[in-house]
């Protein structure tokens, strides 16, 4: 009988999954002898009892774990932080992350060099424009106009003042600037 039971347990008949035809599985119990069925029922009861015991042991262990964590001052937030830190450490250790990080670093360096190069080109172009004869001539005309309109006002000033002076001079009747009205009552 034990040999028969062992053979029946070692059969490779597929166990029906959820949603499969259970009627086919019921036919398999018809081929078992009464003694084999009784032995399987005892085995089933034993396995169910072991599962119940293991569930109780697991619950007790989880309760003990929670008590230890409480005594150590470990709370859910700290655990979450630790899990995130561990997860991040695991991610950064992967070759994919290392390759991506290296590629992004190289791209950043190239972009930085490109921006620096563009900045240098723009600076050079602005210097070229400032040093060009056309700009020099324009600058002299603005200074001359400013000195004519502003009188004894010191050279320089902001561009807005120069534009206002130019606009006033081109209007034909120069209006006194606030500094002039204070100086000449």
TrEMBL record:
Residues 148-185 are annotated as: Disordered. Residues 30-71 form a coiled coil. It comes from the Eukaryota. GO terms for biological process: B cell differentiation. Keywords: Coiled coil. One of its GO terms (cellular component) is cytoplasm. InterPro entries: TPD52 (IPR007327). The keyword Coiled coil applies. Belongs to the TPD52 family. This is Tumor protein D52. It comes from Neovison vison.
């Amino acid at each position: 009988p034990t040999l028969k039971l062992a053979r029946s347990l070692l059969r490779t008949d597929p166990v029906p999954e959820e949603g499969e035809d259970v009627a086919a599985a019921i036919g398999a119990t018809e081929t078992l002898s009464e003694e084999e069925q009784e032995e399987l029922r005892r085995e089933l009861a034993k396995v169910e009892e072991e599962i119940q015991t293991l569930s109780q042991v697991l619950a007790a262990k989880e309760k003990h774990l929670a008590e230890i964590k409480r005594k150590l001052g470990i709370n859910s937030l700290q655990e979450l932080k630790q899990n995130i830190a561990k997860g991040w450490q695991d991610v950064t250790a992967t070759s994919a992350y290392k390759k991506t990080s290296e590629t992004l670093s190289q791209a950043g360096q190239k972009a930085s060099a490109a921006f620096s190069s563009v900045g240098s080109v723009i600076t050079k172009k602005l210097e070229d424009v400032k040093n060009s004869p056309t700009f020099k001539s324009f600058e002299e005309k603005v200074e001359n106009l400013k000195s004519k309109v502003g009188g004894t006002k010191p050279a320089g000033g902001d561009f807005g003042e120069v534009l206002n002076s130019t606009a006033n001079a081109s209007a034909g009747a120069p209006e006194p600037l606030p500094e002039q009205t204070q100086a000449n009552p």
